[in-house]
Design a protein that fits this description.
The complex is a heterodimer of chains A (about 300) and B (about 450). The model of chain A has no long low-confidence stretch (mean pLDDT about 90). Chain A has 11 helices and 2 strands. In chain A, about 75% of the residues lie in helices and about 5% in strands. In chain A, strand 1 and strand 2 (about 135-140) form a beta hairpin. With about 300 residues, chain A is an all-alpha fold. Classes of the chains: A mainly alpha (about 300), B alpha/beta (about 450).
Chain lengths: ~300, ~450
């Protein structure tokens, strides 16, 4: 039972981390129709800036602020220099251009910060663990869950209770009308892109105390975020929330219990390997099942 | 809602799937490389450009025009194909630094070093190897870091009756029945570090042990190597290659409640695993042991204070007590202002072995058989002290247990020898190899 509780918390924590990344990705796609493969690079830039500032100042708060700001700035740069020219282009062009950005970013961070991997030190008040129903669970991971919940609340408020949120919702469905109503669409796009980038950067900083800060660290997360927004429904933040948590839990429970299930059929060593492979595949299986039943995703706009 | 963009949304779907698939392919292409496998570099990118200073003409050969250390009419061209970009770039960079340092110290002007970046990609590496041999005239090849790259490139080299001196990768492919008279491993056979760790964990009196490793060939080989000296395991856990979050594996370890944990997580995976394991509070109750790949001088600096006291297995340490090592560590610190890693030591030893062989044959590499014999003699002072080749031309060497300790400066960590755990260790495949002139 303790194992189940611990794995559920682990699943929630990885789900919320995923949510912070994929909500930005789905926001940008829903608003501007841009397929941004370089979103994982923004996650990485946030982590690298935080590692740098954290090492210089010794303050996690400074590292967090700098990481989020750094990712947002990188996002603005990306939007104004490259992505802006892709809005009217084919999705294939967008894939190629942003994949190029991924390669440049991975090499770029190594040119700026060197090839040795780095880490971010967590703040002292989040170190150690607390006892939950007899289980010692790291405080930092609970803090990530809290940060994830806060992200959801803030995003909900932003999108449903503010004027900018109204524009974003309008841009999702009636993009052309938005300009006609006198909204500065170009500025709005840059702003939304920066917001998405800041969310990715936030995830990067928050995750970096337990991850390794190195080139390409966002790539794995990017693939998972794609799965999230395909399951959740493209452009839907609410879908991204549910899909992230679903993936986090399916993956964690799968890794834990599948090897035991397979172990009934074959020897432990092979079972461990096969079970682990099956668990890795389980999230993609979940995607297939959802797509078969709801091709538009859980909360996507129905098509036809 | 959404009635307005039925068409585009339909098209979006296809491109989305295509995008995910494209990306998946790109990642998978890099993903199946060994070691720190989440390298971002793709095969298409030739990143040999970023190292212009160490490039084609060896600074050592050009700059130190003193007395030639050995007599030879023409310099020998050595092709070093190694990983200089991506996450594992420091492995290749250190290998190259160690190799060049040995040439510099010897004042060797009879060796011309040609260096290329294999980008940790087998296909790229094959193309580069062909080019180095045919265009640059490489006569001896060396430098490959990753076993899957070595498996792809080395057979081509051996076919041309050229010598290959392995600075790092030691796959079983070339150790057992597939051994080759022209192949020398100057590092170790891949299973050795796990075998040394297994012996040590057994000596510590641990009985119930679990293993954790990435789910790929080298991970499973490592667990098998551990089992070879330790015995049966209580359980084993395999994680996705390149995984970054080990919370669920750690929860399973907690649930198993073993006496000790063996883990094999090279590179960045090792930093993540060790940090998270310590964070979980389990480290105080259940000790972890692993090969040195997760504890080299670059990685322990990244893990920091938390790594102090962790034990790992290696064939070498900066404080290994012999004159050759003392000279090496001092010269390396002098030249590069940092403590050498095991990769630097391996590069250094390989260069010194090569120089000793070139001296023996008078700089003439046209007679492969003579050169081979000279290399096999291993007539050089290794930084490991005791060093010789076994029947399969892999090292017969001692293995040590090291402990991470704080270095001289703040934020600097290094490894110190605890004790020797295996003496003149021969790898498990040697008996399957039949070379005529051992």
């Amino acid at each position: 039972m303790e194992l189940f509780l611990e794995q559920t918390l682990n699943g929630l924590q990885s789900g919320f981390t995923l949510l912070m990344i994929s909500s930005g990705l789905t926001l940008i796609f829903g608003m501007m129709g841009i397929l941004n493969l370089a979103h994982g690079s923004l996650f990485m830039v946030g982590a690298f800036v935080a590692a740098d500032i954290g090492a210089r100042t010794g303050s996690f708060t400074a590292a967090l602020l700098a990481g989020v700001a750094g990712a947002a700035l990188a996002g603005v740069l990306m939007e104004t220099v490259v992505v802006r020219f892709l809005y009217d282009r084919d999705h294939l062009d967008q894939v190629l251009a942003t994949l190029g950005l991924v390669l440049m970013a991975n090499q770029g961070v190594q040119m700026v910060w060197g090839i040795a991997p780095r880490t971010v030190t967590r703040p002292p008040w989040l170190e150690g663990s607390v006892s939950l129903f007899g289980l010692d669970y790291p405080i930092y991971r609970l803090a990530i869950i809290a940060a994830g919940v806060a992200t959801v609340v803030v995003l909900w408020w932003l999108i449903h209770r503010t004027k900018v949120g109204m524009w974003i919702r309008a841009g999702n469905t009636h993009r052309d009308l938005l300009g006609a109503l006198g909204v500065n669409v170009s500025l709005l796009y840059t702003g939304v892109f920066a917001l998405g980038a800041a969310l990715a950067g936030f995830a990067g900083v928050v995750a970096s105390p337990y991850l390794t800060v190195e080139a390409g660290m966002g790539d794995n997360f990017l693939i998972l975020s794609f799965v999230v927004i395909v399951i959740g429904g493209i452009g839907s933040i609410r879908g991204a929330v549910y899909a992230s948590l679903l993936l986090g839990l399916v993956d964690t429970w799968g890794q834990t219990y599948l090897p035991t299930v397979v172990g009934r059929l074959t020897d432990p060593s092979t079972a461990a390997a096969i079970g682990s492979s099956l668990a890795s595949a389980s999230i993609y299986l979940a995607m297939v099942v959802v797509l078969l039943m709801r091709p538009q995703g859980l909360y996507g706009a129905p098509r036809g | 809602m959404g009635a307005g963009h039925m068409g585009p949304s339909h098209r979006r779907w296809h491109t989305w799937i295509a995008g995910v698939a494209t990306l998946g392919l790109v990642m998978a292409g890099c993903g199946d490389s060994a070691g720190t496998a989440d390298a971002p570099s793709t095969g298409a990118v030739d990143t040999s450009a970023p190292e212009p200073t160490d490039g084609t003409d060896s600074p050592s050969a050009a700059s130190t025009a003193d007395e030639p250390a050995t007599t030879g009419s023409e310099p020998v061209t050595v092709g070093m194909l190694t990983t200089l970009s991506g996450n594992a770039a420091y492995l290749g960079e250190d290998t190259q630094k160690g190799f060049e340092l040995a040439l510099d110290l010897a004042g060797a002007d009879n060796v011309e070093l040609v260096v290329e970046d294999d980008t940790q990609d087998a296909e790229t590496a094959q193309g580069l190897a062909d080019r180095m041999i045919s265009r640059d005239g490489a006569q001896i090849m060396t430098g490959i870091v990753f076993s899957d790259v070595a498996n792809a490139v080395v057979p081509t080299v051996l076919e041309q009756d050229m010598l290959y001196l392995s600075t790092n990768a030691g796959p079983s492919t070339f150790a057992g029945s597939g051994c080759d008279a022209n192949y020398f491993s100057v590092s170790y056979q891949n299973d050795n570090p796990a075998e040394a760790t297994g012996e040590w964990v057994k000596q510590q009196g641990h009985e119930n042990v679990v293993a954790a490793a990435p789910n790929y060939q080298a991970g499973q080989d490592s667990v098998n190597g551990f089992r070879r000296t330790f015995g049966e395991l209580q359980n084993e856990f395999y994680t996705e290659l390149g995984a970054t979050d080990y919370a669920q594996t750690i929860a399973q370890i907690r649930d198993e409640d073993p006496d000790a944990v063996y883990f094999f997580y090279p590179g960045g995976m090792g930093i993540a695993f060790v940090q998270q394991y310590i964070e979980s509070g389990l480290a105080e109750e259940i000790p972890i042991y692993g090969p040195t790949f997760s504890f080299d001088e670059t990685l322990v600096d990244a893990i920091g204070e938390a790594a102090v006291g962790l034990e790992n297995a290696s064939f070498w340490a900066p404080d290994l007590d012999n004159p050759a090592n003392e000279e090496f560590v001092a010269a390396y610190r002098d030249a590069y202002d940092t403590t050498p890693t095991n990769y630097a030591a391996q590069g250094y030893d390989t260069a010194r072995l090569l120089l000793s062989a070139l001296e023996a044959v008078g700089g003439d590499v046209s007679d492969t058989a003579a050169l081979r014999e000279a290399v096999a003699a291993a007539d050089f002072d290794s930084v490991r002290g005791d060093f010789s080749f076994g029947t399969n031309q892999h090292p017969v060497q001692d293995w040590y247990i090291l402990e991470v300790v704080a270095g001289d400066e703040e934020g600097d960590y290094t490894n110190q020898i605890v004790e020797q755990v295996l003496d003149d260790h021969v790898d498990a495949y040697a008996s399957e190899c039949s070379l005529d002139d051992g």
